[in-house]
Amino acid sequence: MTRILVPSGALGLGFDRTALARGVAGRPDLIAIDGGSTDSGPSYLGRGASKYSRAATRAEWRELMMARAEAGVPLVIGTAGTCGADAAVDWLYDITAELADELGQRLRVTRLYSGQNPTEIAEALSQGRLAALPGAPAIDAETLHACTNIVALAGAEQIAAALATGADIIIAGRTTDTAIIAALPLMRGDNPGAAWHGAKVGECGALATTNPASGSIQIDFDKTGFTLAPMGMGACATPYTVSAHMLYENTDPFILFEPGGYLDVRGARYRALDQARVRVEGSLWVPGPYTVKLEGARIAGHQCVSLTLLRDRRYVANARAWAEDIAARVGATVQQRLGLGPAEATIEMRLIGIDATLGPIERRAETLPVEVGVLAVVTAPTEAAATEIAKMLNPLLLHHALSQDEPMPTFAFPFSPAEMPRGPLYEFCLHHVLALDDPMAAFRLLTDEVGHG
User: Fold this and answer.
1) Average pLDDT over every residue of 165-175
2) Are residues 63 and 96 in the same domain?
């Protein structure tokens, strides 16, 4: 049997300390936690930076390092620093080294790098080793070289290689969410279908329970299946909560693709062992060609934003027409003065309080709000051009009238200066898989000793 403790859905989200302590007392064989996500868009991969604060990450990682020391087992994090880029791996490594000195721990730390060389990926493209996933954009060598970061999603094999170094802590770059949990059960010969299915259910900690905020769960793997038990007081796993997690971030409720094959849960059976625990058997792992998914981000332009507040009832009622007129006027000016057409520079006017989320496809007919925030988003090839266009918007956002025969209105800028550069705008540009003959061919391991004890 292999016991994995998952403290939380992600490092930086927080966790129940009592639940974590209960999990450590259960004598796990490994502590695994996810460190990343693409939920907040491509900027983090583009910049190679974490979306979570260093202070919050450090505080939580400190507690997990102490838990690891008490349990005496490896601590593994996947997709370190939100995006899993090499710089994010090193960012967390530096935090780990600081904490090792602070806590008086002597540690063997292995870094698993997932970053890819654009030239090598372009060569793989020319060799036919890249395949597009559904909905993937067209790519060429120029696309790949434009990426500021490209990562490959590591699977269980790469995590197993890192564990084989004898590391106390493994800081992995971009991985599949399941790999850090499935690797050790697979290494020990537990049921492979159960290893991948249990890892999928446990990837987000207590999300697959009745109390997602409780964070910590324990998963026991064996030769025939897995058992999931929440560690939080009052949290329960049920056949419904466990089976439903196959729908989470997955297009198929029964099939989950991973490097080297796919998980098939059509034959899985879910049984409540008691009020809190669920037993699952019958999951199947189907081996296949070894491929790893690639993610890449590139700069798509630069942005500058301005925010104006409308409270006059007539302007609130006519906010859409007001905003569209401003965008059209300034758009024409931009083309005349800067030579940038609509394909090169865009002006979006988002009406906060009316349809800022869905825009023209908003269908709810609500009563008018007291005020509307008009968020002008300018995207242009350079930061200088984006800021210049935002400044062209400024006088109209402040004083534009709905008609020529009315007094000039004045609206409110909550910030000064009104134009706020956002810097580079990134976009995802890879949704492809890379075929590998050797699972480690696209990954690198580096092991160091840190701290003192």
Assistant:
1) 98
2) yes
